[in-house]
Amino acid sequence: MEQLIHYVWKHKLFPLTGLKTTDGKPVEVIDPGLHNHNAGPDFFNAKVKIDGTLWVGNVEIHDRSSDWFLHHHEQDANYNNVILHVAESIDADVRTEQGDYPPQMQLNVPVKIREHYDELITTDNYPACYRIIPDLPKLMIHAWMSALQVERLEQKTDAITERLTACNGSWEAAYFVTLARNYGFGINGDAFEMWAKTVPLQSVDHHRDDIMQIEAIFLGQAGLLELPAIPERYQQEAAKDEYFIRLQQEYRYLAHKFGLHKMDAHQWRFLRLRPQNFPHIRIAQLAHLYYQRHAGLSQLLECETVKQAKELLATQVTPYWETHYMFGAESEKNEKHLSTSSLNLLVINTVVPMLFAYGRHKGSERLCNRAFDFLEALKAENNHIVRMWKEVGLAVGTAGDSQALIQLKKTYCDKKDCLRCRIGYEYLKKKDA
């Protein structure tokens, strides 16, 4: 596997003595060079001593030396300055575009490295590296967790940047879409993001002082003011529901006024969803948040503590939704406010990424640091990913820790990308007991 040979070369996980070219000249690897992930040779600016002469240049690596021709390197001038061609199997001499013959060296992946790699890739135990985790240096774990935390925030920043582009450069709109997506709390996240992009905030702003009109636009744009969007067993009651009828009338008027086009209600998912998480309730909560003027980025940026952010996002619903989960389905009276755990998730998944992304945009170290401070101030999330890592010996104290471990599982473990993981590196070079 070429990727594994790259890894072994990059980290010098091979015997450093006794190396020779195919024509018997001694080789000393001083610096393997910089790994190139783009077009061109695999490693730039390597330093290799061949038969006592120091060479500085590029190194190309293949499974078989004949792959040089398979990839047409003999026709590419970028490979003219290759000082060493490394392959696990030497089955051909190689030639550059200039007609030179770079020296070649056979490099076998050490048996233990290959065995450990196969264990990581094929084992049914999860995570595959669980055996060594309790013995890993705390400093190494801390450094890797910090890097993963930043990586996750950068990934979320990329998603916010994409929303910003879709919102024609409006940070306020991009924040609203991000907030709405996370009101889906996973199962309806995609639908909420789609919905939020259909809500014309500038038009809604003309009716900001009327909560019913805000609800009418919000629910109407979600396609939830149509009888077919209501389960059949509730349709008869909904058709007689005065509030439902009023919202329908308001939405028809506002949709005509602003030229609105609603989304397809079939995008919403209800299966195995608890009633308090129904989109009707979440949208009603967002409507109230918008009505209170608590759904804007400018207000969020004024929050200097987690407590202030949670107070800003704490919301409620209008009296109708205190006794309903959907139209035509009456329930016991319930304030239907966001729970502490839900508010924590909104801070982790909305507030923190927005502070970090906007801080990056503005070049504000203060906002970026505040994002990290918020993660450290919140307790770790309690989900199956976090519990799994706890079971194998990783300490998880803060939301920063849990976000790092979610990133580790989704970006590395799930993709079997152990060669880019620092724990994977420790596993590959471990000595068997």
TrEMBL record:
It comes from the Bacteria. This is DUF2851 domain-containing protein. It comes from Prevotella histicola F0411.
